[in-house]
Structures are given as structure tokens and as C-alpha cells.
Amino acid sequence: MSINANGKNETFKPSDYTLEAKKEYVYEYLGLKFKLSDKFRNYIADKKIAMLDDQSPIDKELKYAILTFEKMTEEQKNAVIEKMGDGYKNWQNELERIGTIGIFEKNTSEEKNLKL
Q: What is the pTM of this model?
């Protein structure tokens, strides 16, 4: 467990660690560049939608990136969870997925994509 100087479990607000709204997203090594509408970017900035990512390990060549767009309730937006344990995983599983973008290295098999 992660315990602070006061002996309490450390916590964080997961909605503060979602991807930021940008004018353009570039995944150069995977050959993808895209833009979101102003309205959609505002939803991300207002934390009505969480943009989350999953990528191949950073210490290796980038082989895939998966971006998910998740609808957040006010409760999920304001949730504070413990750093250790299943809190983040549980928070993420309760979000409502509204979209996904998957980017994969050209020679990645469909079977491997499904495992991701």
C-alpha cells in the first residue's frame, strides 16, 4: 500500500489523469494523425468524456495504441480512489464506452489485436 506521511492511504482523482483535449493527435510511428470536433474537445476538457489510452510498452518500439472515449457521470468525474489496489480498474470498468480508435503496426495479426 502507498501510505503518506500522516499514515493514511494515498488517493488520487482518476479523471485528472485522462488525456487532454488537443487540436490534433499524432501517432507518427503508426502513421495516424487526427482531429476531434470542437464540441467533442469541449466534452473532454469539461470531463464529460474521458479519453484513455493503452499503448505497447514504452521501452519498446511502438507497435499499437488504443484510444477509448468513455462517458463520465458527475460521480465518476469527482471520484477519489486509493492509489493502491483495484480502485482505478473498477473506476475504469464503470465508465460507459462510446468509442474506440485502434492503431496497430501493419504486420500485427488480427488474432493478436483481439487479445489487446
A: 0.78
Residue-level length of the chain:
116
Could you tell me the residue ranges of all domains in the chain? 11-115
Measured torsion, CA atoms of residues 113, 33, 14, 55, in degrees rounded to the nearest 10: 30
Q: Report which DSSP code applies to 48.
A: S
Which residues does 58 contact at the CB level (< 8 Å), separation at least 6?
A: none
Q: What is the per-residue pLDDT across 42-98, written as a single tens digit (0 to 9) for each?
A: 999 999 999 999 877 666 677 788 899 999 999 999 999 999 999 999 999 999 999
